[in-house]
Amino acid sequence: MLKKWLTKILPTATSPTNKRPKPIATPFIIPREDHPISRRHISDGALKVIAKLRSAGFSAYLVGGSVRDLLLGKRPKDFDVATDATPEQIRDQFRNSTIIGRRFRIVHVRFGREVIEVTTFRGDHDDDSSGKAAVKHETGMLLRDNVFGGTIEEDARRRDFTVNAMYYTTEDFAVYDYCHGMADLKAKLIRLIGDPETRYREDPVRMLRAVRFASKLHFTIEQHTGESIHTLGHLLRNIAPARLFDEMLKLFLSGHAVATFRLLQQYQLFQHLFPATSAALIAHPEQVALLEQALANTDERLAAEKTVTPAFLFGALLWPALQHAFNQLQKDGVPDMPALQQAATNVIHRQLQTIAIPRRFSLPMREIWDLQWRLPNRSPRRAENLFNHPRFRAAYDFLLLRQQSGENLKDLCDWWTAYQHANQDNRVVMSHEERETSDAPIRKRRRPRRRKPPAAN
Question: b/e string for 174-200 if b means 16 or more Cβ within 10 A?
C-alpha cells in the first residue's frame, strides 16, 4: 500500500485516465515536511557526489528509480544523480570515475563496490545549439544522443516514465515533480512521457522497461502507453542482442519473473524475444506450465537470497523450442542423441540472433539439456558418473522442474533423490536393483580383442 502521506498531499490525484498530461514548466514541489525521504535512506556515495558537485558550483539532484522507491517506502538498489555538469566536468571532480557509453554518455563514480551513475541534463535533441545533434536510424531509433546543456525541465521531459522523472535535492530537501509523477504514483500507473509511438521508436527497450516496472511495482500500464506496445514490438529486433541479454536478466532476475512473463505474453513481446519458444508454445500450450514453474522457482530462490544461474533460466525458457525441434528430427528418422545435439545447436543459433547468450551460460545450458536424456540410465557405473558430473545438481533440479510442471517423472525423481542421500554401498545396490527391474536389455560389455605382438624383424 502507498503511504498515507501520498494521499494527504495529493487529494485531487485522479484514477487512470485516457488523457495524456503535458509536462509542466512550474514543478509540483513537495517540501521536506510533506514527504518521507530522509538522508538516512540515501547511500553515502550518492550524498558525496551531490555535495561535491554542488560545492563546485553545479546543481545536482537524486533522480529516477531511487526517488520513486524512496517515496514508496522501498529500499533502492542503486542511486542515480542528474546534474548540469558535462561528463568531462564530472570526471574532473572525481578521480574514481569513468565516462562510459557512446549512444548515451554517462559517468560512473565508484565508492568501493558501489557505483553512482551520474548523468548530465539532456537538452532537446531536435534543437541543439551546440551543433552535436542526435543521430537517428531511419526507424526513428536514437543511435546517439549526447545533447547536453538543457535545463532540469528539459531533462525531465527526456526521461522515460512519469514516476521516474522526479528530483530530490539536498539544497532544500524537497522533491520536484515536472511530469505529474506524483499523481501517477498514487494511481499506480506506468505512463510514458510524450507520444508513446515516438518514444518507443527512439528506444524500443522502453517497452521492456514498462513491463518491468509494472511487474516490479504491481502497477498498471497506462492505456496509451500500452496500446503502442502491441504494434511496435517488432522494433526490439533492431536492438543489439548483447543489450537484450542484459535486459532479460533485469526482467527475470528482479524477483517478479512470473508476473513479467505474463505481461510479456499479454503485450505480445515474448514472441519477439524468444521466437522459437513462442512458436513451440503455440503447438504445445501445455508447456507454458514448465516456464511458469521455472520462473516461480526463480522468484522463490531470489526471495530466499539464494543464487540463480542464467544457464538454468535460459535452459527453461528454451526447453519448449528444444523439445519441438527434437521431435521434428525424430520424425525425420534421426537417432536420439544426434537429434538432441542437432536440435540444441539449431535452437541456440536461432536464439543468438535475438539475444546474445554468452558461452559461459550456453555451454552449461546444453549440458543440463544433455543430462535429461542420460539420467534415466542408472546402471552402477553410469549412475556414479552422472552423480559426479559438475552439472548434475542443476540437471537434477531441472528434472524436478519437469516433474512439477506435469511430466510423468515421479519415479525417476524419487530414485535420484534417494540416491543422493544413500551411502556408497547402498548406491551400488540401488543401481543393480534398478538394472534388474528395468525393461531395457542388459548389454554385456565386449572384451577387447588382444592384439598380436608385432613380428620380430
Answer: bbbbbbbbbbbbbbbbbbbbbebeebb
